From TrEMBL:
Keywords: Ligase. CDD domains: BPL (cd16442). It comes from Butyrivibrio proteoclasticus (strain ATCC 51982 / DSM 14932 / B316) (Clostridium proteoclasticum). One of its GO terms (molecular function) is transferase activity. The keyword Transferase does not apply. This is Bifunctional biotin--acetyl-CoA-carboxylase ligase/biotin operon. One of its GO terms (cellular component) is cytoplasm. Its EC number is 6.3.4.15. Residues 74-269 form the BPL/LPL catalytic domain. One of its GO terms (biological process) is protein lipoylation.
Length: 281
């Protein structure tokens, strides 16, 4: 399912996400959104059907439960600084998709904007380098970001890969206290087990060989059940959290990663090299 637009249900969800932890009355939502109390009630009912855990208390209103962890554009935006580079990034959210990178490449070819981000709850055809399978069950974060070459300040392509790896490591460390490290070209590890894979692809104009766009694919094992992974992977992968035990939400981590990825246009080569030494193994 693709989540986009400004439907009433999206507006209500955005208000709940922005008020996470606090109750918002039906009257306050109706007044703020310019719609009826009945429309608010219907939107809340539909959100509950979609799986959102929403507390309803007489004379207080509604609030999202703390254990709610459904990926949504509204949830991601609630954690993005309105002054950040990616504040206007287009977010496309899928329950399931073959590959976020393939969708991002399709959109980039059609002229999607710099910073456009595709996120999925799971992938049916996730890929790593050399078309290796990237197992992508529910519980993970699978996201791809479109970058334009004129926003990239680096003289060598390898610096893009290094910058993205550093950005994911820093975001995870800042938000969870867990400190991943980079091993090989594009894999992130914790305690000698893989936690994240990164796949960067690009498109060029055939006649001039001019780089047209870059797609950054990131897959993070947030809280999947490792027992559901293929047997041959269970001893070499891990997750940030056990299922349902995350100390942050997926939306918060996605927002943090997206903000750092989009900050690439302000990066410089020397800072990448200096920061890389902290996370390289």
């Amino acid at each position: 399912m693709l989540t986009q637009g400004v439907r009433t249900i999206d507006k209500v969800l955005a208000m709940l996400e922005n008020s996470r932890g606090d109750f918002v009355s039906g009257a306050e939502m109706a007044s703020g959104l310019g719609i009826s109390r009945n429309a608010i009630w219907k939107a809340i009912k539909e959100l509950k059907v979609q799986g959102y855990s929403i507390e309803s208390v007489t004379n207080k209103g509604y609030r999202l439960s703390k254990d709610n962890d459904i990926i949504s554009a509204e949830g991601i935006k609630s954690f993005i600084n309105p002054d950040s580079i990616c504040a206007s990034s287009k977010l496309l959210i899928y329950d399931s998709i073959d590959s976020t990178n393939d969708k991002a490449k399709e959109l980039a070819f059609r002229g999607a904007d710099h910073g456009t981000c595709i996120v999925a709850t799971k992938q049916d055809g996730g890929r790593g380098r050399r078309d290796h399978l990237f197992f992508s069950p529910e519980g993970g974060i699978y996201m791809s970001v479109i970058l334009m070459p004129d926003k990239i300040p680096f003289s060598r392509n390898v610096l893009i890969t290094q910058y993205i790896g550093i950005s994911v490591c820093e975001t995870i460390k800042e938000l969870t206290g867990i400190c991943p490290y980079i091993q090989g070209i594009n894999d992130l590890y914790v305690n000698d087990r893989k936690i994240c894979g990164i796949l960067i692809e690009s498109g060029s104009e055939f006649d001039s060989d001019t780089l047209q766009w870059i797609v950054v694919g990131i897959g993070i094992n947030f809280d999947p059940d490792i027992k559901e992974f293929p047997v041959e992977l269970q001893d070499i992968v891990t997750s940030l959290f056990k299922p349902g035990e995350g100390t942050i939400s997926k939306n918060e981590l996605i927002a943090g990663v997206l903000e750092k990825v989009c900050q690439i246009e302000k990066a410089d080569e020397s800072s990448v090299q200096n920061r890389l030494s902290t996370y390289r193994r």
